[in-house]
Recover the amino acids of this structure.
């Protein structure tokens, strides 16, 4: 059995476990939808009727991206359980490639993120969100979501393979994710932030990915924000994945 086949089996296993866990299923689907509805109801009223559509065009991509970040704690906990629950010990006695478990978990997480992102996008379309740049841009829209999800899946592996327990992992990921979410260009333009923090907001991975999604859906710059998003994935995502692989290798070598 090839490594790709083994990874696909682990990805299917993770997706089945996700769909068979009602609390996680409800939270994963309900949280971004409720976040979108509440933010649009509150801040959409503040900006006024004339700017509500423009605000939705920026808010919807940001909320869609949040599904990757705020779903990472459950992914990290799931990987921690795999490492400490005896699964790794069982795999050591079987002809399974060492990286198949990690590849399967990343693939399953990315598929889950894209699926939830599609549902959230559908709800946004009921509110008035539209794709105005053609079919290829729609494909690119979800490709960027997958890339962003890949980065957070790698972060989840890094955190899940490190020190800590099931109680300490979620806050260590939710806290930074919340700060990145708030200090991004999805809520308000970069120019609305104090000048001292504008460079941070502009470089925020949420900001660059949001700008890419806005460009692909409603029009605007696409190439630069997409390249910046890829840069975050290749930089932070690769580092986290390499550290997770090293930790996993040490554990499987025991």
């Amino acid at each position: 059995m090839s490594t790709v086949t083994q990874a696909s089996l682990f990805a299917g296993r993770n997706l089945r476990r996700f769909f068979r866990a009602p609390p996680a299923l409800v939270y994963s689907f309900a949280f971004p939808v409720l976040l979108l509805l509440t933010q649009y109801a509150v801040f959409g009223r503040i900006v006024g009727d004339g700017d509500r559509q423009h605000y939705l065009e920026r808010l919807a991509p940001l909320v869609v991206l949040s599904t990757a970040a705020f779903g990472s704690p459950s992914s990290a906990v799931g990987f921690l359980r795999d490492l400490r629950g005896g699964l790794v010990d069982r795999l050591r006695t079987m002809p399974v490639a060492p990286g198949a478990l990690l590849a399967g978990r990343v693939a399953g997480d990315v598929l889950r993120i894209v699926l939830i992102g599609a549902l959230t996008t559908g709800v946004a379309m009921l509110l008035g969100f539209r794709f105005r740049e053609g079919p290829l841009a729609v494909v690119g829209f979800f490709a960027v979501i997958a890339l962003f999800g890949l980065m957070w899946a790698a972060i989840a592996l890094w955190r899940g393979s490190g020190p800590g327990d099931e109680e300490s992992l979620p806050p260590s990921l939710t806290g930074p994710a919340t700060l990145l979410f708030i200090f991004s260009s999805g809520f308000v333009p970069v120019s609305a932030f104090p000048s001292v923090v504008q460079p941070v907001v502009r470089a925020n991975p949420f900001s660059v990915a949001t700008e890419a999604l806005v460009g692909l859906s409603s029009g605007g710059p696409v190439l630069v924000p997409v390249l910046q998003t890829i840069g975050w994935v290749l930089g932070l995502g690769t580092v986290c994945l390499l550290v997770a692989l090293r930790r996993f290798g040490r554990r499987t070598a025991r």
